[in-house]
Amino acid sequence: VLARLTSPLSLAEVESDILRRVRALLRELDGHHPSCQSDRGMLRWTLHKKIEQNPSTSCVLVRILVKELERAERGDLRHYIIPLLHTLMYTLVQAPCIPEELCARVYDFCKRLLTLPKPFCTIGLDYASRLQVERTAPGTLYQRMVISEHSLPSAPFPHRERIFIFADPELLPEAICKALLTDTQAAQVSQSPRGCMSCVVAHALQAALGDTCDLHGLRARLQALSPGDVEHWFQQVVVAVEGQGGSERGQHTARLERIYSSLLGSLPAGNAPQEGLQGTPLPNPNISFHLWTEDEQLWKELVLFLRPLSQSCEPDGLGQELDAAEMQDMLAGCDCCQQSRFSVLSTDSGIERDLAAPEEPCGPCAADTERSRLHRKGGIKKKLSPLDSVALLQAGSAVPAGKPPGKPPRRSGMSPEPAAPLQRLHTARVVLLGDDRILGRLAQAFHSLRKREARRVFLTPRLNLQFYHVPVVPGQPPQDHAGPEELCEVAGYLGRADPWYESNINTLCHMIPKLATTPVLCPQPSRALVTDLFLPDVIAYYARMATQPVCFQLHAVKLLFQDPAQDPAEDVFLTELLTQVQDSPSHRELSTTKRKSTLDGPGIDLTVTYRKVVLSDRQKELALSLRSTGLLMKAIPAEEAEGLGCLSVSITEIIRINHLAGRSFTAVANRFRTRQIQVRSPEQRPLTVRLDKDSRRTYRDVIGLEVSPCLEPSYCLHKTRTTKFSPHETEDVGLVRYLPKSLLLPINTFAGVIQ
């Protein structure tokens, strides 16, 4: 059997099988879907699973992918390049050992991508820099990924990452939510810190030593060690890989050889493994699943990620990164972080003549009496209620109470030391599961978060926030597979812009409900493997490799209501705004409406003022009056050439036609593109407005609305301050010119928008 596995014929069969799988991936990119529809979206996953089960074939896959990349470059097949490059890099990170000549070929190819337009040059530069580090110190990419994803203690590389999956329980069935929660929890069962540290040590030593590394003996040795000893050797490996920047590969190998000898000892002759090169699997990342039930839940989870419960109530830990003012805000109202504070309610008026006339004091006591008049008396002590702050999230902590530290004393005559700039050491990867409605809710939460950050910056300088979208629509897929459904316009646009997103993520739209509702039978272990590992693996691959954002313009809407006493409402939307004629509630108004509808037709009179988008980018303001039954504003273009900055407005106009037999009415659709629009009802007839296809975000009794691009809250704040001191300035001056003006929602894909 061993001779057959190592024979040239067996190697040729392996190469042929892998090449066939890679070519199937490329055919799917061309739109030729596999004959078995159940394989859609699973070709990449099955390929990587095959390599994971047999790590010795990773070099074969890398060599085939390099040849296909060079062939795509010669044939100008650019839509193949990014998918092949992502597949290659994901394989290279997990491979136990890759020859230097293969790494050099991949590195040279990435450098040639710098001559191409975006996103090819951006991805090529990113991967070229990673490969340069990997060639100098093999195993660095694997080590950094595991350290950051599992928050392992590491001073040379103190980065932290976490994947947050958010699903709206009102939009997805309970069975799907339970299945997703079960899958994400099952993927975390075996991911202990000790196991992850052992994986880092084993992979780093094997990547440096190659075939001479006894992986089985190394695993047995690490398994026999105590958790403290495993962490000790883990720190030794991390320092050897990260702490010697700029050293050559030979020096890196020598350092790890010394660690290997100290940990395992020299390998006796004849004991080297003979079954081929083994690998160390890449642990699943830290994934948390959340049912989105509160409006502020996203912000709270991000704050808790930055300040875990074990650290938030420790003043010393907070003081390392926060100044005194920030600590007061973070710890205010937290009973476990400060002593009880009391306020005194005064009962006097503060007027001196209202005080009781004191007796004439003697000479020595006159000064004391005068000072006593300055103090309030007779107060009632009342304990303040806890403030609505981050500290409320930390209730129940077992840390003993302590007084928050103040500013350290500064010696006279010495200038204060400049504060070290904050670094974004935390990365939160937020994955939204659902359709366009949950993205509309994300737009609201993102706008609220940016407004909070504009008032007081906390998350922005410390947290790298990344958004991802996995479309999920319960129900059966369309029979013709013509395209995305009406509820997944954002995912459809991302799929048209990025073919690799279409192949790997958009195919989950109907696959997730199917896998979640299909019972797992014991006699089918392969079916259980797909259900238990496929979804977490695909989400992990998406979060790890999708680094190119597609930025969507948010639009702000101001709503005016029929009741003059009701204040106008302000909201934001991402995908669409639908306006329809509202049914008249009163009988008198209903009879009047019927008589008028008989004469003028259905609908109501509207006045529309908008700025038309023209090719010269000049502002051309138009106004029209018409009778309409409603209008629809769409922010997601049906074609890529239209761009993401404009609204496509469709107004259903009712036209009356007079003829000999009487009069008739016909509906005509008026379409135009604009950036700003105002709609009014001169008759004060009510309208119904629905945002982002979500019935929960429906406004009634609306008589007017104004829609414009949503501005960045920090820009608005600085603009207001500038206008306050320079009221005659109409253009942006000072630092305002360099601030982003529009509020964009970035959603990551594998390639961004391929032109």
List the helices and strands and how they pair.
Blueprint: H1 2-5, H2 8-29, H3 43-53, H4 58-74, H5 78-94, H6 100-112, H7 120-136, H8 140-150, E1 160-167, H9 174-187, H10 193-209, H11 215-224, H12 227-242, H13 249-264, E2 287-291, H14 297-306, H15 309-312, H16 315-319, H17 324-331, E3 342-345, H18 363-372, E4 380-383, E5 426-434, H19 436-455, E6 463-471, H20 489-497, H21 499-504, H22 508-517, H23 525-545, E7 548-553, E8 555-561, E9 569-573, E10 576-581, H24 587-600, E11 604-612, E12 620-634, E13 647-659, E14 662-680, E15 687-691, E16 698-709, H25 713-725, E17 744-749
Parallel strand pairs: 1-2, 1-5, 5-6
Antiparallel strand pairs: 3-4, 7-17, 8-9, 8-16, 10-12, 10-15, 11-12, 11-14, 12-13, 13-14, 14-16, 15-16
Helix pairs in contact: 2-4, 4-5, 4-6, 6-7, 8-10, 9-22, 9-23, 10-12, 10-13, 12-13, 19-25
Summarize the structure.
Residues 396-421 are annotated as: Disordered. By secondary structure, the protein is of the alpha+beta class.
